[in-house]
Amino acid sequence: MYNRKEFLKRSGGAALGLMLGPSLYAGCSASSRIKASGSISAVGIQLYSLRDDLPKDPKGILKQLAAFGYKEVESYEGAQGMFWGMGNKGFKRYMDELGMKIVSSHCDYTHDFERKAAEAAEIGMSYLICPYVGPQKSLDDYKRLADSFNKAGETCKKNGIRFAYHNHDYSFRLQNGQFPQDIFMQHTDKALMDYEMDIYWVVTAGQDPIAWLKKYSGRFRLCHVKDRKKGVTPKQGEPNLSVIVGTGSIDFKTILAAARKEGMQHYILEQEAYEKAPIECVKEGAAYLNKLVF
């Protein structure tokens, strides 16, 4: 079983001021992700949702996900790497067989990133994403991280893909009178990187996802669709309260409609806490998202 904090530390690159090199836009147009009716044409899933089951049988789990109606995959760096022991080309071949596409992966952008960007680009991925940096002691620390994001963005651009950052709640909580997320947005070059909004964590921080989508229109190109338990007031440091997507308190119909207008392109389910077997949770989540009209 993977430990979330250990994974995030390894994949997120919390170290400051890392000198990584280069990024370019290889994403698909937003209209290609939305049917004429306003529903999602290519529902995605973050494979971390199945972190206990996936390492035991990667191909078997991926086959089930395809059967549930997932069309896009966002991977992460587990013990077998982001391509789950198949290599980048082998993973793509299997995705092609299943009628799915790997569009992105969370990864450690502070280690061997040139190779990762080249391998991702080679199989037509659009993004490599930093999943976590952790709360920082000062606002200057966030500025230094923004500089390292720009350098990672340059590495990705050089290889023909994009870099992005995935938020948790800490960047949407005031620190010394400022939101760290504002620092990230304002100190990174939109020509080099985008952002993946984890809607659950924005709500958990007591913030309005729609307001942030409008404030930085066109910067949030991917989102994590992760629902939140009903009847619980958000508070800092709480345990993860994610529930099956579509059964919780988050108004995805309204939020995703706004996201679409502000340039959202990839809608990726993530499940972190479970009410039943993880595979059943993501099956029900896929059924909800594939029927959702906004």
Automatic annotation (TrEMBL):
<dbReference type="InterPro" id="IPR036237">
    <property type="entry name" value="Xyl_isomerase-like_sf"/>
</dbReference>
<dbReference type="InterPro" id="IPR050312">
    <property type="entry name" value="IolE/XylAMocC-like"/>
</dbReference>
<protein>
    <submittedName>
        <fullName>Sugar phosphate isomerase/epimerase</fullName>
    </submittedName>
</protein>
<dbReference type="Pfam" id="PF01261">
    <property type="entry name" value="AP_endonuc_2"/>
</dbReference>
<dbReference type="GO" id="GO:0016853">
    <property type="term" value="F:isomerase activity"/>
</dbReference>
<dbReference type="InterPro" id="IPR013022">
    <property type="entry name" value="Xyl_isomerase-like_TIM-brl"/>
</dbReference>
<keyword id="KW-0413">Isomerase</keyword>
<feature type="domain" description="Xylose isomerase-like TIM barrel">
    <location>
        <begin position="63"/>
        <end position="291"/>
    </location>
</feature>
